[in-house]
Each structure stands twice: as structure tokens, then as C-alpha cells.
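Lab manual, section 2.4: Encoding a predicted structure.

Procedure: take the sequence of the chain (303 residues), apply the prediction step described in section 2.3, and record the output as C-alpha cells. A sample record is shown.
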Amino acid sequence: MEHTMSTGGRAVIVGCGDLGTRIGRRLHQRGFDVEGWRRSPDRLPDEVRDEIQGVSADLLDPAQLPQLPTDTSLVVFTPTAGERTAARYRAVLHDGLSAVLEHIAALPGPRPRLLVIGSTAVHGDAEGRVDEDAPLTPNTPTAEVLAQVEELVLRARTEGITASTLRLAGIYGPGRRRLLNNVEGFDASPASRERLGDPLRISNRIHADDAALAAECLLNEPEPPAAVIGVDHCPVAIGAVHNWLAEQLDRPLPWPELDEAQAHGRRMDGSRLHSLLADHGHRLQHPDFRSGYSLELAAVDGT
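Recorded output:
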């Protein structure tokens, strides 16, 4: 069954960085006027300025946030904290979303639907297959804040707002080169091995383009679920990713004796998202890391 997103009206991207820009461009193509709220709107890429109107907004100063336009029909909340501390996460993500929800409640007429970009970090150190029905088990102070952000989303749903959280794992793609750089720089020394980390840890990931597609899909869903896990089809021991990239880059194989059967950690289940995409006539552009990283490798080769 294919759904059609209503068009017209305005979409506001709160925290319009790389992912927010990708989402905003998709919504612009759907016919929405798009505002991109960020601390430095002049840093929006030149190529999107005809599609996304930059608006100055600092979530660290919620009292000074601009009002939502009265024709707002979609709000996407996707800021980055900027610092990996619980205090910063609370100030930007929790308190920032609280302020945005107050602005939504103040609008006359139908309330816009809300999508919050979250993280699978709320599942902490869970082992084995994990889906949206699994309990949240945050095991770091920042993940605790992310779980509290999801509580705000659940409360908004009880107050009549169509709201969802998209829990993303391991976003990669253009401009996100840490893993590639570590494999490119691998020289079999203990220091370079340490930079790669535990090869048997399960890696869950999604390409940035597919993360934007997932957001568009949820915004197009008439009755979206409270939470959707955003991952590709291939949770895998991170050492397998290292080895494959090393082969493509003609670098030393970091883990020649890797036994993937010993992999441990969370295997995030993206079945709900994959089903929703299919309902909307879509599928992931990059179902596994080989597909997604091939683009990055082509850029490295200059092809």
C-alpha cells in the first residue's frame, strides 16, 4: 500500500545540520516550504539556499527561539549536542525539545506532526537481537538523556500530537570519514589496532541518505509508531567492515583471524522501518556497508 504525504504548508527543521539538510531537501521536493533552524544559518550549503530558508535559532537559549510559523505542518527535531556530556545533551536535546513542544502547543489550528531523531544508544549494552519492543536500557549519562527525550515524545502523543522517534545507529556517508581514515592509516602497529577497537563488536549502521529517506517515510505515515529503529539490513562484526575496507584500499588486513561467529553486542532489528519503506514503495539505497562505502571509496579513487 503506497501512501501520499500531504503537500503544502511549512516544514521546520530544528537543528539543520547535515542530516537535517538532507531531510529538508526531500521535503522541499514534496512541495513544502522549508525552514532550517540552526545557530549559524549562514553555514547552510550554498546549493540548498533556494530550497531551505536559514533561520537563526540557538537551543541553548530556548527563551529566544523564534515562533513556529502558523502554517507549520511538520517539525523535525534533529540537533547535535556539540559536546558528549550529559549537561550539554540535556540543555540542547531535552530542554530544547521541551521548548519546541511549547511552541507547537501554542499554534492555533491543527498541530504539526513531530519527528525526533534519536539514537539506538538508548538500548545501552543489550545483547542479541533488539527491536522497538525491547526495554530501553541506557548505560551512559548521555544515553539516559536520550531516553528522557523519548519520554517527551511519548507524552506529546498522549496530548494529541502525532510524534515519533527515529532511533538511528551509526550514520555514515559523505563527510563522516573516521572509520575510513582509521583503516587507511592502519599499519599493523598496536596503536593503529587500538584505534580500530574491538573487532568482534557488532556494528549497526545506516547511510545518511537512507536516514533521510527513513525520516521522510515516517513523516508520510498516517499513523506512525512511537519509535522506529533506523538501520540497514546488515548488522555485522565491525572487524568484518575493517577487513573489507582494507581489501578495497589495498591496506594490510587488520583482523586476518576474525571469527564472526564470536561477535557480541546488539543486533538492531530494522524490520519495522524496512516494512514501512516497502509500504511507501521504497527500499534502502544502501542495504549494507559494502553498498554505502563503495561511494566513499569511489571518491577516494577520484572516480
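Check your result against the sample. The mean pLDDT is 93.
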